[in-house]
Specification:
about 260 residues, single chain, mainly alpha
């Protein structure tokens, strides 16, 4: 998934002034919010794999496979995205480039999952779900590593100040990172479930492959467009609209998957 600007985890926002007791109240709040986000991310990373293995009887190997296939697909996707960007250049309008990049992202990630399902079909939906959870969880690790690297390199104080201003009045902005990872985990799991349904003899519904690709491409295409137009990700109204869109797509994918599972 194309990622927007990552708020500090924990925040590195430094206030311009300090209170008599040391750190300014805003800085203390920012640190507390950041640690809550970090704990939420760790919960998203740990709990779904434990639950699907403990209560659904999934094989841990499928979680590892989902993570590995995601990593391989992203390693292939990034250079192809750069090549596509150079080929399109400024000859294509940004909306067209966003659609193309979204489709490329969807095809790379989901075709890799589909190829795995064809070569090593999982035994049961529980293992299909575990595969998708593996993809979502490894992306959580990726986000955590990005946050650490940005913290070491030094973050943009203007971006951090904008995040703090938005976080003061919006829970969406304040906890945007764990919210995004939770929605992405649902999307990763459901989209790979749709791919499994499309390539397996279980359903014979090839149309769900198209649905999975289009919905995945919509999320990454909109994210790409937002990055290129420099959306203010710390704006409460934009944050709500953006994550409502992602959440809606994830719920559609999950609902279709549940309907297929109930057939």
């Amino acid at each position: 998934m194309t990622l927007p600007e990552i708020p500090p985890i924990p925040p590195g926002v430094e206030p311009e002034t300090e209170s008599a007791g040391g750190r300014a109240p805003d800085s203390k709040k920012a640190s507390a919010w950041g640690y809550i986000s970090l704990l939420a991310l760790l919960a998203i990373l740990v709990l779904p794999p434990l639950l699907v293995v403990r209560y659904a009887g999934a094989r841990p190997a499928l979680i590892i496979a989902g993570a590995g296939v995601w990593a391989v697909s992203v390693a292939i996707k990034h250079p192809l995205a750069l090549l596509l960007s150079r080929l399109m250049g400024s000859r294509m309008a940004l909306p067209g480039r966003s659609v193309a990049q979204g489709m490329l992202s969807a095809i790379c990630e989901l075709s890799a999952a589909g190829l795995y399902f064809l070569l090593r079909p999982p035994s049961g939906w529980n293992n299909v779900v575990a595969f998708g959870i593996g993809a979502g969880c490894i992306e959580v690790v990726y986000v955590l590593v990005l946050g650490i690297v940005e913290g070491i390199r030094g973050r943009d104080p203007d971006l951090d100040a904008a995040w703090l201003a938005g976080a003061k009045c919006s829970l969406c902005v304040r906890y945007s990172v764990p919210l995004e990872r939770l929605l992405a985990l649902i999307g990763h799991t459901a989209s790979r479930g749709l791919v499994y349904a499309g390539v397996s003899a279980y359903s014979g519904l090839r149309l769900v492959l198209c649905l999975a690709v289009l919905l995945f491409a919509a999320v990454d295409g909109v994210s790409y467009y937002g990055l290129k137009t420099e959306w203010d990700w710390s704006s409460p109204s934009l944050c709500r609209r953006f994550y409502s869109f992602i959440g809606g797509i994830s719920l559609i994918e999950a609902a279709v998957l549940v309907l297929l599972w109930m057939r």
